[in-house]
């Protein structure tokens, strides 16, 4: 009778004694599972740390390459600037050499003791020499008087009402304009006709 009471208490507790695992086995396996997950976490942390080390090394390499590239660019820019200045100096020296004979002629004219007519013809010769030197350098005078007004090459100082010239014709050149090859050095200062009837 006591047996049946014991059986019913086990049954009441809902335990299946035949299929239940021994208590000792369960207690031993639980810490082992915890150790396995801790080892996996440590390995993963180690892998992340290694990856981070690689990324940092790659970053440092790239920063070093960038610094070198910037230094090379700065050196190249300085070299190019120095070369350009050298070309400008060479071109200026060449232009000055072309003008030196004109300076020589002015000095000779100022030292000469001669009459007004001789002095004037000497100045005219020097003026012609200067024009030739400038032409050799590629400088050309801009035609103005009698030409139609061109705002690209002429600067109108005054508009003059007249019936003796076409509308917008240049009547007078007050200061000559010059071009260097196709580049405008300075516009010609001119008076322009205003004649709406023509």
TrEMBL record:
InterPro entries xrefs: GrpE, GrpE_CC, GrpE_head
GO BP annotations, alphabetical order: protein folding
Keyword Chaperone: yes
Residue stretches of biased makeup (Low complexity): 23-49
Similarity-based family: Belongs to the GrpE family.
Organism for this UniProt entry: Candidatus Sulfotelmatobacter kueseliae
Protein name as catalogued: Protein GrpE
Upper classification of the organism: Bacteria, Pseudomonadati, Acidobacteriota, Terriglobia, Terriglobales
An annotated Gene Ontology molecular function: adenyl-nucleotide exchange factor activity
Keywords from the named record: Chaperone, Cytoplasm, Stress response
Endpoints of the signal sequence: none
Biased composition (Basic and acidic residues): 1-22
UniProt subunit comment: Homodimer.
Gene: grpE
Pfam families (UniProt xref): GrpE (PF01025)
Primary role: Participates actively in the response to hyperosmotic and heat shock by preventing the aggregation of stress-denatured proteins, in association with DnaK and GrpE. It is the nucleotide exchange factor for DnaK and may function as a thermosensor. Unfolded proteins bind initially to DnaJ; upon interaction with the DnaJ-bound protein, DnaK hydrolyzes its bound ATP, resulting in the formation of a stable complex. GrpE releases ADP from DnaK; ATP binding to DnaK triggers the release of the substrate protein, thus completing the reaction cycle.
Region (Disordered): 1-50
PROSITE patterns: GRPE (PS01071)
GO cellular component terms, A-Z: cytoplasm
Location of this chain's protein in the cell: Cytoplasm
Main location: cytoplasm
Highest taxon of source: Bacteria
């Amino acid at each position: 009778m006591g047996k049946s009471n014991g059986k019913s208490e086990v049954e009441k507790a809902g335990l299946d004694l035949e299929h239940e695992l021994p208590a000792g086995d369960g207690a031993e396996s639980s810490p082992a599972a915890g150790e396995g997950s801790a080892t996996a976490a440590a390995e993963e942390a180690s892998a992340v740390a290694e990856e981070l080390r690689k990324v940092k090394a790659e970053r440092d390499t790239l920063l070093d390459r960038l610094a070198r590239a910037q230094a090379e660019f700065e050196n190249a820019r300085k070299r190019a600037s120095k070369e350009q200045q050298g070309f400008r100096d060479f071109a200026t020296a060449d232009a000055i050499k072309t003008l030196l004979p004109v300076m020589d002629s002015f000095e000779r004219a100022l030292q000469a003791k001669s009459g007004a007519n001789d002095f004037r013809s000497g100045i005219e010769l020097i003026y012609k020499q200067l024009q030739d030197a400038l032409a050799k350098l590629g400088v050309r005078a801009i035609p103005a008087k009698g030409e139609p007004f061109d705002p690209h090459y002429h600067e109108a100082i005054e508009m003059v009402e007249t019936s003796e010239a076409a509308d917008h014709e240049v009547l007078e050149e007050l200061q000559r304009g010059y071009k260097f090859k196709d580049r405008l050095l300075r516009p010609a200062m001119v008076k322009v006709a205003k004649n709406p009837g023509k």
